[in-house]
Inverse folding.
């Protein structure tokens, strides 16, 4: 190929690369939201209320936008709350960003853990790493965790909450049942006999 031809090919490649880098990922049509209002919310409204914050955005097709929003809220509020790392990680796992999800999950470990949260985290990470033996070990250790004397906790109404023991065991069992599925499906893996 002559020098002029090589130069033309190189210029076309540079132009194409420049165009690809210049384009930002398109926001899903149903993912529009008031970013400033979301980032201004307090923790309870942004993360814990199922009718507001990131949970109010449509789950289908908005995974990356939601994950980025959670990360941006966490950064803006200088929050190190483990549950925010967890929620961002879950959404990234659903979107297929496995390496980033693992990193976020690992940052969600609790320093004090009487309820087996860290075992749930470890089992979830093992599922994403495709390490069935580690998932089974975390699941078995969680299943053997002694029930606290004051279980179940009291709900907002002052009555015992409907929370089984050990918490999150059903998710680890689901990962084992739906081992060959992606996180998005395995997280909601149907129980045997469920319609």
């Amino acid at each position: 190929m002559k020098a002029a031809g090589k130069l033309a090919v190189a210029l076309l490649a540079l132009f194409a690369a420049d165009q690809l880098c210049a384009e930002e990922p398109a926001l899903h049509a149903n993912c529009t939201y008031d970013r400033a209002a979301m980032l201004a919310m307090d923790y309870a409204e942004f993360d814990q209320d199922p009718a507001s914050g990131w949970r109010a955005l449509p789950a289908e097709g908005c995974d990356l936008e939601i994950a980025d929003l959670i990360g941006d809220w966490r950064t803006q509020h200088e929050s190190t709350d483990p549950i925010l790392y967890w929620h961002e990680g879950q959404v990234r796992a659903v979107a297929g960003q496995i390496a980033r999800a693992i990193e976020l999950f690992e940052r969600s470990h609790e320093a004090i853990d009487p309820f087996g949260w860290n075992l749930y985290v470890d089992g979830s990470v093992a599922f994403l790493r495709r390490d069935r033996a580690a998932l089974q070990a975390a699941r078995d250790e969680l299943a053997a965790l002694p029930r606290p004397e004051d279980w179940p906790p009291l709900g907002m109404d002052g009555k015992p909450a409907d929370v089984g023991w050990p918490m999150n065991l059903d998710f680890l069992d689901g990962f084992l049942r739906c081992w060959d599925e992606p996180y998005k499906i395995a997280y909601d893996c149907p129980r045997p006999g469920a319609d």
The first helix runs from residue 3 to 22.
